[in-house]
Amino acid sequence: MSAAPTRVLFVCLGNICRSPAAEGVFLHQLAQADLEGSFVVDSAGTGSWHVGQAADPRMRAAAERRGVHLPSRARQLSVADLQTFDQILTMDAENLAAVRALSRQRRPRATITPLLQFCRRFPQQEVPDPYYGGEAGFDHVLDLLEDACAGLLATLLAARRQSDRADPPTAS
Predict the structure, then answer these.
(1) What is the pLDDT of residues 70-100, one digit of tens each?
(2) Are the beta carbons of 106 and 82 closer than 8 angstroms?
(3) CA 78 to CA 102: how far, in whole Å?
(4) How much is the pTM?
(5) Is 56 a catalytic residue?
(6) Domain span holding position 55
(7) Active-site residue 12, yes or no?
(8) Does some domain include residue 21?
């Protein structure tokens, strides 16, 4: 019997730049590692301004240049997400505070963590919002997300291996 998929949610402010890019980067890395069936991946925003919209065209273009597809449509984070997901990963301190405030309404099942905690190459603590900047900002965000998502994946796989060793399968 295989383990249940790990459910991962990436969160930013409007869900049209950073979090859909993180979702797309993580999905891309999962596909490269042939792990798509081991994870359920989504993204959301703390605000509702862009609900239903595709990712920002500039972010989609920057991602496509790297071979990364951004499939999501913007949606707003809900209290139910705190119970549905195993991991909720935020892009900056404002997003982290908003998710934690929402979690006061209902004790979360999810672990809520800043995504850049998983970076290996970059010392930054927050993913900057590229919305009001130029093309270079979108590329920089993707650099950060590729690094952090690789670290996240390695961490989640290590935890899964540890759990598998701790809970050996039982005979039927």
Answers:
(1) 999 999 999 999 999 999 999 999 999 999 9
(2) yes
(3) 8
(4) 0.94
(5) no
(6) 6-166
(7) yes
(8) yes
